[in-house]
Design goal:
This protein has a 3-stranded parallel beta sheet with strand order 2-1-3. The chain starts with a strand and ends with a helix. Helix 2 (41-49) crosses helix 3 (63-74). The protein is globular and about 35 Å long. It has 3 helices and 3 strands, in the order E-H-E-H-E-H. It is an alpha/beta fold.
Length: 78
């Protein structure tokens, strides 16, 4: 099963991705995360990485895209 992780933008939460996730085929495993209120994007990436799958595709919009790039830097092997 393919894991997809969605990261919301600034002033949004995981619920912003609900309709997208519900429209995906059942063969895909998707989840959305809430971005923790931490003032450093690298620390946000580290905090999120703890609960993410071993391998996943990452989708982010707005500030979620910035967080996605930080996650790529933090754990590129995943």
């Amino acid at each position: 099963m393919t894991d997809i992780v969605f990261v919301p933008g600034l002033n949004n939460d995981a619920l912003v991705w609900d309709r997208v996730i519900k429209s995906l085929p059942p063969s895909l495993s998707a989840t959305a995360v809430d971005v923790p209120a931490i003032g450093d994007v690298d620390k946000i990436a580290a905090a999120l990485a703890v609960d993410l799958p071993d391998q996943f595709f990452l989708v982010g919009h707005s500030f979620g895209g910035v967080v996605a790039m930080a996650l790529l830097k933090y754990c590129p092997e995943r």
